[in-house]
């Protein structure tokens, strides 16, 4: 007979973890402090507990790559309560960045002359080359998620309300300067979750997705809501030939139930809406809008939708599978994540496979095709992320990027080259490999990577020098050039040099770094001594690229103080991009952020380096050392 259990510590761990979700953070930490057995990291930093607490309390979306990092989730929980900030950068037409209006001094007109000198708010700046905090966001409470759309930036708060800067319908609204606004609901519902006098699961948003010109969301009780204009209330989405089941949040938790017909996730694409419905799979339909003469409508009945073939499989531990279900589980598996691109749906499954399907008329997909060159040989689950025309596959620390051209080639040659061995288009950017990348966000021509250490790196091109890469600039673009950007003299496009793809270029949230960089370039202590090598830097891209790497290494020595939790002054939780702008959700430790950096910021002349090919830059000063050594640059890295 088994020994009698006399203490809770005698219970096996798999029993204890069933209790954890019923404890709030204070109770859980109190339990962990009762004895050494509970204080061990495997319990105190239990990943399922802390990830559940963060996602349930703050509505933060799951991050599959780090879902087993309990220490990270616990630190996020502690700091989200007071330190979440939202930064945006890039093109600011329609005030999509949500920045404060510029202030300008001086005398502007005869009216102004009569009044005397004044300071005038001139409207939002046209663009921002480096991160700037969004206006009016600190009074929203905890920001759980942010996403960029074609002409907008949308925020989700921990209360479940959505707030938007810019416009959704940018092709119909040509100018907008309004600050951040609430997305609201039709009459009969609370205007938004923040105004409800009690918890209202019908309007508290659990998860949302920003497409090019619409926002799609699912509420706590499983309703689908869609916005096509920030001036109009949401439309509830229902289907003529598909029964959706809402969640019953008050029922006895001991009562077994099926999740069939319930919404797990919504994804808004370039020109499509979609949802993953349990037991049905990925469902796709056209975005909904009201008729001009029907402004009172609160629900839209979708008459036509499509379902992605073979995306409906669910593993069951209680019922016996049919042969057909078993074969589907072995061939395709359970959909874990999916994306909606311009012409394709792409999804990853729990058996280490990735599939795509091409949209035909009326969103119909006739069949799916496995992308065999990204399959995990051992069947380990993968993650897929992407938007518009680009995507990334996460596989054992690797990040494989590609675009619709690759999908089109695989689709077109699926009979001639079924293994896809001769199809080009998969890339492995060196800076993204085994560097703790959690997520990748794609704009039209640029993309950003969020790393597990809270840093964001930037790649690609910023059109017309709009600043979407977030690497900074100033007069004559010298800061951008020092970060590794080369600008086209005709259209102003800023392209990141190949040198930057070796280790990446970090986005700086401390604006003092840009000031320091501008000072080094513009205010040398001995102008004549550095003049010749500055000229070489100005006119030779290879030298520019290597000097930008030296500046990158110097900047990493800027803020060595990680604080008590090791997260540092700025720790990014999420990153987003669309079109020509970008944004990030960042934890900001104000004490560390205002602290004088340990880096010596005394005036210094332009660096003198020994370049990777042995060339010595001219000058009389001693050579500047490479803090991390001169890297072996891979100049085809952007196309690997």
UniProtKB/TrEMBL annotation:
What GO MF annotations does this protein's record show? guanyl-nucleotide exchange factor activity
Please give the coiled-coil regions recorded for this protein.
none
Outline the extent of the F-box domain.
5-53
Q: By its UniProt entry, which CDD domains does this protein fall under? A: F-box_SF
Task: Give residue ranges of the RCC repeats.
Answer: 84-159
Gene Ontology CC terms, in alphabetical order? cytoplasm
Q: Which PROSITE patterns match?
A: FBOX, RCC1_3
Which domain of life does the UniProt lineage start with?
Answer: Eukaryota
Q: Which Pfam families match?
A: F-box-like, RCC1, RCC1_2
What is the protein name for this chain? Answer: F-box domain-containing protein
- Which taxonomic lineage does the organism of this UniProt entry have? Eukaryota, Fungi, Dikarya, Ascomycota, Pezizomycotina
